[in-house]
């Protein structure tokens, strides 16, 4: 059995770049930084930051390019891929995470809530991908005005 799965939660290091492949498929690339904190041999707190290259294709890439901004927190779920190419006779390599799902964190401007985008969450209304959750969602709940009798509950 094989498994190639990556989960990254971090902040965008740059604004996403949205391009189109010759086939017409949209591709969005951006960077995410993750940090870990640890204590060294002397007991002082240290920080190590890793930088990850992220690529999202098609509708997911379009949404990432539209909604993500530098500094914003994001959760990426995807697979690790290394590709190679040759430039001026020199072989070059790049390891990146190909996103299967992207969850948008709060914007740096202090907005609350989260947007989730995944190719599997496409709904039938206009082909829009994603859902939005806000902390004020309880304002929209319409509770019944009648009282509930505990004897009427079937369990």
Description:
This protein is mainly beta and 155 residues long. The chain has a domain of 95 residues: Nucleic acid-binding proteins (OB fold (Dihydrolipoamide Acetyltransferase, E2P)), CATH 2.40.50.140. Helix content is 6%, strand content 48%. It has 1 helix and 8 strands; from the N terminus they run E-E-E-E-H-E-E-E-E. A 5-stranded mixed β-barrel has the order 1-3-4-6-5. The longest helix is centred in the middle third of the chain and has 10 residues. The radius of gyration is 21 Å and the shape is extended. About 15% of the residues have low confidence.
| Reported CATH architecture of the domain at 6-100 | Beta Barrel
Number of strands: 8
Secondary structure category: mainly beta
Strand content: over 45%
CATH class of the domain at 6-100: Mainly Beta
N-end to C-end Cα span? 43 Å
Q: If you consult CATH, what is the topology of the domain at 6-100?
A: OB fold (Dihydrolipoamide Acetyltransferase, E2P)
If you compute it from the alpha carbons, what radius of gyration comes out, rounded to the nearest whole angstrom?
21 Å
Tell me the CATH superfamily of the domain at 6-100: Nucleic acid-binding proteins
Give the rounded overall mean pLDDT: 81
Helix count?
Answer: 1
Major beta sheet, strand line-up:
1-3-4-6-5
H/E topology pattern: EEEEHEEEE
Query: Segments where pLDDT lies below 50 for 5+ residues?
Result: 110-114, 120-138
Shape: extended
Helix content: under 10%
**Major beta sheet summary:** 5 strands, mixed, barrel
């Amino acid at each position: 059995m094989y498994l190639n799965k990556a989960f990254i939660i971090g902040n965008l290091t740059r604004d996403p770049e949205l391009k189109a492949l010759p086939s017409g498929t949209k591709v969005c690339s951006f960077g995410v930084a993750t940090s870990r904190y640890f204590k060294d041999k002397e007991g002082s707190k240290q920080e190590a930051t890793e930088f990850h290259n992220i690529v999202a294709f098609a509708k997911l890439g379009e949404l990432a390019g539209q909604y993500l901004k530098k500094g914003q927190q994001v959760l990426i779920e995807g697979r690790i891929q290394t590709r190679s190419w040759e430039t001026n006779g020199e072989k070059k390599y790049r390891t990146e995470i190909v996103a299967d799902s992207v969850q948008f964190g709060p914007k740096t401007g202090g907005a609350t809530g989260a947007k989730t985008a995944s190719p599997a969450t496409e709904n039938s209304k206009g082909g829009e991908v994603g859902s939005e959750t806000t902390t004020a969602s309880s304002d929209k709940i319409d509770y019944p005005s009648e009282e509930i009798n505990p004897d009427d509950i079937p369990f």
